[in-house]
Amino acid sequence: MPLLGEQNTDRNTRRHCGSDDTDKIRPRRIPNQNIVHRLQQRETNSCKPGTHFHTARVFHQNVFPNFTVVNVEKPPCFLRKFSPDGQHFIAFSADQTSLEIYQFQGPAATEALLQNIKGSLTGNDEHSQNIRSSIFSKFFVLRHSVNVAPSGEHLNRECSLFTDDGRYVIVGSAVYVPEEPYPYFFDVYRNNESVSPNPRSPLEDYSLHVVDMHLGILCDSRQFKCDKIFLSHNQGLYLYRNILAVLSVQQQTIHIFQVTSEGNFIDVRVIGRFCYEDDALVLSAVGPDNSGTSQQHRPFRETSINSLKHRLLAFLWRKARKDGSPTAMRRFYQYFDQIKLLRMWKMQLLDETNLLIKYASEDVVTLRVQDPNSQPSFFVVYNMVTTEVMAVYENTSEQLLELFENFCDLYRNASLHAHSQFTCSASCNVYARQIQRRFKHTIINAKYGGHTEAVKRLLAQLPISSQSYSSSPYLDLALFSYDDKWVSVMERPKACGDHPIRFYARDSGLLKFKIHAGVLGRPSPPTARRLVAFTFHPYEPFAISVQKTNAEYVVNFHIRHIVVD
Fold first, then answer.
1. CB–CB of 96/80 below 8 Å?
2. Ramachandran angles phi, psi of 485, nearest 5°
3. Fewest beta carbons less than 10 Å away: which of 78, 269, 278, 345?
């Protein structure tokens, strides 16, 4: 007679090995996908406190952009992005001097135009051609065309910052400084931290403009002459609520402005040579201008260390002294000259008072180095109000990487205007963290890789450009699963594949919709690099993809379309 334990073992064996024909592998239970059922559940079942936004967001798995209009005919302009409230869409004119403001008519604006159209994308018949030629005007109505750029300047097509209320947009324009007549020496080098321009980083005249999208008027502008500001992808600008920071790489100066509710710039402070507003007054009382000599004082000839760099050196000195070991002090003096030669490369606002500044060598800052992210750099957290350096990290710092991974949303600031943050970052989404860990392990195991190299590659994302992440629910990895090689929450051009991008529901694994980028079946030159940029509406089932192959642009609209039999 077998023992009781032997009977249980035999029963478990039959269950797992499938010895009994009636025992089968249990299929995966798929939650009910019916939208009527989900609406009833929302009405009858109370969700946990604070989760009603997440409950409502699940309905995007039922309403999604399931139809692609290929090769849309658009006006002669460069499409940019939607405003945070989704009501307006901005574009730049073909000559890059004017800002065109369109009003979005809603995702169902073309449903009458798409009657009797079946499938997931338009064809090549006459009716499809009519759709391509008229669909843009159905979705977007031009409200204003504002002439923004001054004479000779051109708007940067990759630079735009929206205020939280969705009323104002900040854009930037630039023009190269002419070689004849070349600007005066002391206009190029305004302090002893100014960098030397070169053909890879030429000087330009810049202007920043505030445009009222509701009224279609230019509210205010600021000019920066003989300067270098990285406008592309908002790298040299950062808007946090109503505080705008502008990094002048050429003059090694950070300009802080306040954007008022009337759309005006207010000068708040200038950080670089001085940290406090009255530092210039104090210096003039004891400086060369008060010595009785007739020679004009030039800040470029100053031998003293400028205020911001002095704050950095003083912080490192106090840190070495606090360590108490002679080795720490020796190391500080050993690298003193190298730290003194560091220059500001990038920056971002962490909040209204704190800046994250990235320092690197002058060759990196002026783009003389081919692979700048592999070079040594430092991250400095600076408080603008108290003028104190709060922390300093190297680009191999494990501590900074841990802060970045656990509090990624505080660096992205993707949707400060929203009641709830859906940023889909590694600090709040298990699937996003899985992607980041996979990327990290790939670098660690790669040739010439390693743990230190992985830390440097991950920290190379900092500082993060302002408003560079999409808040669209269709890119939320908690709702949908997709290949982030072809599309991601970061609004940057991606390589264009030959197959449509598939989006699967995260809770069921079912294929929900596909996005076709570019023109399918059209051969491309073998040497051409095909890139595609996606612009998703903040919350509606609508997206725009712009594929670029050499100098050719193909615009596709990805919309919601219901086929009625």
1. no
2. -70, -30
3. 278
CA distances from 431 to 55, 86, 400, 476, 481 (A): 19, 27, 22, 10, 9
DSSP for 460-502? TTPSPPTT-B---GGG-TTTEE--TTT--SB-S-EEPPSSPEE
Asked if 101 and 83 touch (Cβ cutoff 8 Å), the reply is: no
Checking phi first, is residue 518 left (phi over 0); if not, alpha (psi -120 to 50) or beta? left
Range among 9-18, 260-269, 299-308 with highest mean pLDDT value: 260-269
Q: Shortest CA distance to 245 belongs to which of 225, 265, 215?
A: 265
**Residue type at 104 in one-letter notation:** F
- Average pLDDT of the chain to the nearest whole number: 86
Distance, in Å, from the CA atom of 390 to the CA atom of 314, rounded to the nearest integer, reads 11
Joined tokens for residue 260: 């008022």
Closest CA to 53 of 479, 508, 507, 510: 479
- Using alpha carbons, list the distances in angstroms from residue 59 to 290, 478, 550, 563: 70, 13, 39, 19
The position carrying tokens 């570019």 is: 518
pLDDT band at 258 (very low <50, low <70, confident <90, very high): very high
Q: Which of 32, 87, 1, 148 is nearest to 539 (CA)?
A: 87
Strands 511-515 and 552-559: unpaired
* CA distance linking residue 562 with residue 565, whole number of Å: 10
Distance CA 495, CA 485 (A): 8
pLDDT in tens, 15-73: 444 445 556 777 778 888 888 888 888 888 777 776 667 677 888 888 999 899 998 99
Please list the residues that pair with 496 across neighbouring strands: none
Whether 89 and 37 have beta carbons less than 8 Å apart is answered as no
Task: Evaluate if pTM is beyond 0.70.
Answer: yes
